[in-house]
Structure formats: C-alpha cells, structure tokens
From TrEMBL:
It comes from Stentor coeruleus. One of its GO terms (cellular component) is acrosomal vesicle. It is found in: Cytoplasmic vesicle, Secretory vesicle, Acrosome. Keywords: Cytoplasmic vesicle, Repeat. PANTHER family: MORN REPEAT-CONTAINING PROTEIN 3. This is MORN repeat-containing protein 3. Assembles a suppression complex (suppresome) by tethering SIRT1 and MDM2 to regulate composite modifications of p53/TP53. Confers both deacetylation-mediated functional inactivation, by SIRT1, and ubiquitination-dependent degradation, by MDM2, of p53/TP53, promoting a proliferative and cell survival behaviors. May play a role in the regulation of spermatogenesis.
Amino acid sequence: MESGSLEKNYEQLWKRNDKKAQKNGPHKGIYWVKKREPEEDGKIKGEKWFHSCKYTGEWNENQKEGYGTMTYQNGDKYEGEWRSNQRNGHGTLWKLANKKGEKYKRIYTGDWENDKMSGQGSYFYENDDRYDGFWMNGKRHGQGRMIYSNGDIYEGQWIDDMKEGYGTYTKPSGECFEGYWLRDMKHGQGSFYYGNSNRIYVGEWVENVPKCGIFTEVEDDEVSFPNRPKYFTDADEPAPLPGLKLRNPNQVLKDAIEAIRVDQEDASLSH
C-alpha cells in the first residue's frame, strides 16, 4: 500500500475517533497543545510540543457552553459563561501579574457577547483608571463613568469609545464642565465652573474652545476669598461711573450663538 493512502486512512481514523469523543457536560480540564517554534539557530529548545491553553468547565456537542474557566497561552484567564465556543454572558477577565502564576489582576468584569465586551461592565486599566458603564463590541458605548487615576471624573454618554453626547467632567480642584461633547471634545452648549475663583462660563463650545457666551461670578456667602484683592472689601466707596450697556444684550448673544451653530452645520456638511 502506498504511503499516501496510509496517511489518508490514518487521518480518517483520527477523524472517526474524534467524532466518537464528543465532549458534553462538565470536564475537569481540556488542554490545547502547540508546536514550539525553533530558535534563530533553527533548533527547538525544550519539548517540541507544549500546552498552550486549558479549559475547565461545561461543554455541549464539543463546544464550550455553560460556565467554565479558560487559561490562555500568555497566562491570562477568563472565568464565566460561554456559548458556541465564545464568551457570552457574564464573566471576568484576569491578567497574569507574575510569571509564576500566583497572582492575577482583574481587568474586566461584566457582560460579554460573541467574545467581546458588550452590555454593562467595569474595566480596570493598567494605569489605575477605571470605567463603569455600558459597552458595545469591545468599546465604551452608552452611559458610563470614567474615574481617572489623577482624580478626574467623567460621567455621561459615550459613543465608539469616545465621550459624545451629554456629560459632566469634574476635576479635584473643583473645576467642572457640564454640557455636550463630540469626539472626546467639548462641543455645543455647556457650562464651565471655575472652582477656585467661583466663576462660571455658560455658552457655546467648538472643539474644546469657548466661542460665545456669558462669563459671570457666582456669589456664595459660604465661600471665602482669601486671595481677593483688598479693594473688594474696602469700606470706601469708589466714585460712581456711568453705566455702559448694550441696547439689547440678549439679542446680541442669541445672534452670536446662532451664527456659530450655522458655521458648524456648514462645516459638517463640507466634510
């Protein structure tokens, strides 16, 4: 018998036996083996084959289905629900913190769909940032809160992994922006509060730049101003000055805001 037909018969025998070994129900551990790549000198160091992945959990007709734990080749680990061989349902992804496999760091806990973060969940970044909210296809999408390692907090809407829609960005210094965002930038109507000076700007923003609005000082009896110049509390009254006002300030502001919005619509159409 020729060697080609021997290989063919051997392959068919392997396939027949594999079909007989259908995995159903819980299993203690299933390993995937992988051939080790040769070094620069063309030689393979160590064993020719090694364990690349390990799955412990439930199966249905040879597919991961139900609850199970998957340990990947790089040491990372997923614990949670599976469907049709993919992460579907609720689960947690862990990152290996040391090579000995003794310590893991949580990366994501939440909902999965077709192997991607989708639904509601929490992501823990390498730089200690944290996001709690909704996901779609592995990206922040919907309502969510981002807590940055420097103390900044954004809470609002996200689209395609960027701040977009209505949201509030607060800094530890007390500064706060509340308004609309577009592609991670302040864009549209919004208010910026200067915490240290107790002042506020309300108006239109274009790509993080305030374009037109009202800038006022917010008076608060409970707020002290230790750095305020002395003339603010001087008992002597300054000489009265004649008032200087616009004839119709509200209309001037309205016209300016409308002009900015028209320019933005024209710019969007040109792109």
